[in-house]
C-alpha cells in the first residue's frame, strides 16, 4: 500500500464519529454482540471481540453494558439477530465508497443507504463494483517513536509496511497478524489500532468540493445500521 498515507482520513472519520457518542454506543454494542455470536465469548481467542471491547472501553462504555452485549451474542440474553452486510457505490466526483453494516432488517438498510447516495449525487453499486479499490489490513499508529525504533520488532511480527505521517509512525499488517503485532508493540505509545479497509487507489478532491463528500459520509454514519464508512477521497 505505497503512496498516500491513510491516517489523515482515519482521523477525519473518527472525528466525525466521536461527535456522536450515543450512536457510537449503538454501533459498538452491535459489533460486540455479533463478534461474540460468531467467535464466542473467549475474549483472548476472539480478535474481533477483543477489538470491539477495547473500542467500547475507550469510548467510556460501562462494563455491564459490554457484558450484556456479549451475553446477547452467545444467547445468554435475548436480543436482536444482527448480521454483517456491505454496500458499495460511488459518491460525488467518482469517489468510491465501501460501507459496512450490522442490521436485523436488510430491506430497511439498503433503502436507507440508497437514499443517502441518491440525495448526494451518488449511486449505489453492485457487489464487487468498488471493493477491489480497498485492502483489508491491520493498522497500528504510534507516537513518540521513529521507524528505526520499531522496524525490527514490527517486521519480525508480521508487518509488511511502515510509513511516517507528521508525528506518527504507522504500521500495516495482514488482518490475521494484527493481534500478535499489536501485542509486540504494546511497550510503545499506541495512538490507534484497528483492522480496517484502506484505499489502494486514492481520489484527490479539490477543497471547494470536499463538503459534498463529507455530507454523504455524515448522512451514512448517522444511520444506526452503519458500522463504518470507507472511501478513497483525499480530504484535507
Helix/strand layout:
Blueprint: H1 7-18, H2 21-39, H3 47-58, H4 63-73, E1 83-90, E2 96-103, H5 106-119, E3 123-125, E4 134-143, H6 147-155, E5 159-165, E6 168-173, H7 178-184, E7 189-199, E8 203-204, H8 210-221, E9 226-231, E10 233-234
Parallel strand pairs: 8-10
Antiparallel strand pairs: 1-2, 1-3, 2-9, 4-6, 4-7, 5-6
Helix pairs in contact: 2-3, 2-4
Walkthrough of the structure:
This protein has 236 residues and is an alpha+beta fold. It folds into 3 domains: 7-73, Integrase, N-terminal zinc-binding domain (Arc Repressor Mutant, subunit A), CATH 1.10.10.200; 83-132 and 201-234, 2-Layer Sandwich (Alpha-Beta Plaits); 134-199, YebC, transcriptional regulation domain (Alpha-Beta Plaits). 41% of the residues lie in helices and 27% in strands. The protein has 8 helices and 10 strands. It has helices at 7-18, 21-39, 47-58, 63-73, 106-119, 147-155, 178-184, 210-221; strands at 83-90, 96-103, 123-125, 134-143, 159-165, 168-173, 189-199, 203-204, 226-231, 233-234. Strands 3-1-2-9 form a 4-stranded antiparallel β-sheet. It has a 4-stranded antiparallel β-sheet with strand order 5-6-4-7, covered by helices on one side. A hairpin with a 5-residue loop joins strand 1 (83-90) and strand 2 (96-103). Helix 2 packs antiparallel against helix 3 and helix 2 (21-39) crosses helix 4. It is globular. The model has no long low-confidence stretch (mean pLDDT 90).
Amino acid at each position: 500500500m505505497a503512496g498516500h498515507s491513510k491516517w489523515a482520513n482515519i482521523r477525519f472519520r473518527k472525528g466525525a464519529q466521536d461527535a456522536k457518542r450515543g450512536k457510537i454506543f449503538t454501533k459498538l454494542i452491535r459489533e460486540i454482540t455479533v463478534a461474540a455470536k460468531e467467535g464466542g465469548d473467549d475474549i483472548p481467542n476472539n480478535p474481533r471481540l477483543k477489538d470491539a471491547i477495547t473500542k467500547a472501553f475507550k469510548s467510556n462504555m460501562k462494563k455491564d453494558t459490554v457484558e450484556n452485549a456479549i451475553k446477547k451474542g452467545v444467547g445468554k440474553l435475548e436480543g436482536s439477530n444482527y448480521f454483517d452486510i456491505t454496500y458499495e457505490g460511488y459518491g460525488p466526483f467518482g469517489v468510491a465508497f465501501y460501507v459496512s453494516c450490522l442490521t436485523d432488517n436488510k430491506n430497511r438498510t439498503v433503502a436507507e443507504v440508497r437514499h443517502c447516495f441518491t440525495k448526494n449525487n451518488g449511486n449505489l453499486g453492485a457487489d464487487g463494483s468498488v471493493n477491489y479499490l480497498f485492502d483489508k489490513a491491520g493498522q497500528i499508529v504510534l507516537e513518540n517513536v521513529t521507524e528505526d525504533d520499531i522496524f525490527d520488532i514490527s517486521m519480525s511480527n508480521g508487518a509488511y509496511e511502515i510509513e511516517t505521517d507528521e508525528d506518527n509512525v504507522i504500521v500495516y499488517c495482514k488482518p490475521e497478524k494484527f493481534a500478535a503485532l499489536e501485542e509486540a508493540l504494546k511497550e510503545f505509545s499506541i495512538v490507534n489500532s484497528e483492522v480496517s479497509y484502506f484505499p489502494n487507489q486514492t481520489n484527490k478532491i479539490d477543497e471547494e468540493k470536499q463538503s459534498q463528500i463529507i455530507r454523504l459520509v455524515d448522512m451514512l454514519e448517522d444511520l444506526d445500521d452503519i458500522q463504518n464508512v470507507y472511501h478513497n477521497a483525499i480530504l484535507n
